[in-house]
Amino acid sequence: MADSGLQRQLGTCERHEIFLARATAAAGQLGLSVPPDALAPRSRAAPVTPTPAWPPPDWLPVRIIESDDGPLIDWAYFGDDPLKDSFFEDSVQRALARPFNRVFRHATRLDDFIDNAPREEAIPLRGLVFHMSRCGSTLVAQMLGALPATLSLSEPGPFDAAVRLALARADLGSERGTALLRAMLSALARARNGERQCFIKLDSWHILAFPLIHAAMPRVPWVYLFREPAEVLVSQMRMRGYQTVPSLVPSGLYGIGEDLAGPEDLCARIFARHHEAAIHALAKPHGMVIDYDDLPDALTDRIAPHFGLSLTRAERAAVEHASRRNAKAPADLFTPDGEQKQNRASVAVLEAARRNLHGLHAELKEISRCCAQALPTK
Question: I want to staple 345 with a disulfide (CB 3.0 to 4.6 A). Which of 162, 206, 230, 266 is the partner?
Fold first, then answer.
């Protein structure tokens, strides 16, 4: 752990035979004899002995795992990976596939993780992106990530795990729970490539945990993105997100009864809960709602100023270039699909949207319109 140069040399290997040759050579130079099975790939499910201290900055948390020692933060070596994938989990999977992370482990007990957090290493958090789901949030994250010296984290799983843990455990109530969230932010936002600012796009259900997240980061500006309900429901009926399965989110958050007409009705009620929570959260400072129909221009015109950014001409060009790509498949160009989704909306989708979301959607549109009118003219 003390030799960052050796970590980089071994951590960047993509093939095990190259990793093995380099590791064996490095051991020989240090006068060590390493048996071959000591460098054999291991399962991430295997037990690991925790270490109180955090690892060096090139390591990031990838999971919170249960063990006989209680929850452990499981780390992996990322080196200088810029985390430009559409989702943080894609970067995690690439890192975990490297031989170094299949041989070497680092884990920290939950209390040590919180108490030993070197928060001075963290990149300043400039904004949080809450969202309804399937409403342009990945686009916003990619556009923010196109800015120079910027880390944009898209739905980082370890942060989600920290929120779940803080909501579930009595010993993480109040200040201890918010300390966990701040520590996780510090761990994820480690400056590895000269980054000067960070943004986080959260999971869609996190708007229901707004009081906890806001308590941990009370002065951080945030936005809530939403979209025409039928279009979101059509997308969910084609491929359901885990957030629309009540058993996969913390118990009791949705509070949905059994009188459901079908999956369309269930999803619509879940998104109604999201909208209600967002509207309630706007009573707190630093919030703004953004309509999908106003993207991508709303990023430069509204979100950037709200997050305290004054974009240069070059920065505007960078985010506008990112807006032309498919946010979830950046190699492809973006193709508008709103009309297509409207045409595919079934009677059940349209009725579920009308019954559960029509009024809330109208209220959010009015709030968004008022926010836009309140901005200074160019």
Answer: 230
User: Which structure tokens are listed for 270?
Assistant: 């879940």
- Give the number of other CB atoms < 10 A from CB of residue 189: 23
Percent of residues in the chain assigned helix, strand, coil, to nearest 5 = 50, 15, 35
Return d(Cα 339, Cα 90) in angstroms, integer: 30
Amino acid occupying residue 24: T
Strand-pair category, 59-65 with 72-77: antiparallel
Strand extents, DSSP E, 212-368: 222-226, 287-291, 325-326, 329-333
Cβ-contact 4, 77 below 8 angstroms: no
**What's the whole-number mean pLDDT along residues 155-184?**
94
d(CA 322, CA 338) in angstroms, rounded, equals: 19
Peptide bond before residue 296 is cis, with ω within 30 degrees of 0: yes
Structure tokens at 290: 């953004």
Backbone φ, ψ for residue 315 (5° rounding): -70, -40
Assign 321 to helix, strand or coil: helix
Exposure pattern of 123-153 as b/e (b: 16+ CB <10 Å)?
Answer: bebbbbbbbbbbbbbbbbbbbbbbbeebbbb
Question: In whole angstroms, how large is the CA radius of gyration of the chain?
Answer: 22
Gap between the Cα atoms of 110 and 59, Å rounded: 17
Q: What is the pLDDT of residues 296-326, one digit of tens each?
A: 999 999 999 999 999 999 999 999 999 998 8
CB atoms within 10 A of CB 298: 23
Closest CA to 279 of 359, 369, 360, 355: 360
Q: What type of residue sits at position 252? A: G
How many CB atoms within 10 Å of residue 56? Answer: 16
What are the distances in angstroms from CA 63 to CA 44, 165, 197, 272, 276? 10, 12, 23, 30, 30
- Longest Cα–Cα distance in the chain: 73
Residue 89: CB partners within 8 Å, gap ≥ 6? Answer: 155, 157
CB atoms within 10 A of CB 277: 20
CB 112 within 8 A of CB 93: no
pTM: 0.94
Share of the chain above pLDDT 90, in %: 73
